[in-house]
Amino acid sequence: MATREKQKALARKVARELEVGTASLKKLKTSARKARVVANLVRGQLLSDAYVNLAFQKRAASEPLRALLKSAAANATERGFDADNLIIEEIQVHKGEIARRFMPRAQGRATPIRKQSTHIDVRLSTRDSK
């Protein structure tokens, strides 16, 4: 392995050791725009407050996001961090694949339907580290 690549690999390893808890959700069947509205509500909040806020949201993306936060919290507690001090440091919502379908219309025509998906990444930190 070249020296520069070795340094990059070592830097990634050190960064992984310093992480508190991460989780990612791939191919959520909703558009990124709709999921970002819910993600913006909980960004930067304490984890327990985020659970409460998501429990009372009527949007469809709130339940998968709540499960994702639960997974990230479980990853953090597995690494030995206290779940009461966890904060949502970063939450990113990316566009996923778009499945293209067609709906038949009048006079032999067809109109396209775009079924969008979303990828969500969450990184937690402790309240003390901020």
Q: Total helix count?
A: 4
Low-confidence stretches: none
**Count of domains:** 1
Mean pLDDT level: 92
How much helix, percentage-wise, in residues?
40-55%
Strand content: 25-35%
Computed Rg = 19 Å
The neighbouring-strand order within the major sheet is 1-3-2
Shape, please?
Answer: flat
CATH architecture field: Alpha-Beta Complex
Please report the distance between the alpha carbons of the first and last residues. Answer: 36 Å
Provide the CATH superfamily.
Ribosomal protein L22/L17
Order of SSEs, N→C? HEHHHEE
Q: What is the SS-derived class?
A: alpha+beta
Describe the protein.
The protein is α+β, with helices and mostly antiparallel strands. It has a single domain, classed as Ribosomal protein L22/L17 (Ribosomal Protein L22, Chain A), CATH 3.90.470.10. 41% of the residues lie in helices and 34% in strands. The protein has a 3-stranded antiparallel beta sheet.
Task: Throw out a few tags for this protein.
41% helix, flat, alpha+beta, 130 residues, three-stranded antiparallel beta sheet, Ribosomal Protein L22, Chain A
Could you write a compact summary of the structure shown?
This protein has 130 residues and is α+β, with helices and mostly antiparallel strands. The protein is 41% helix and 34% strand.
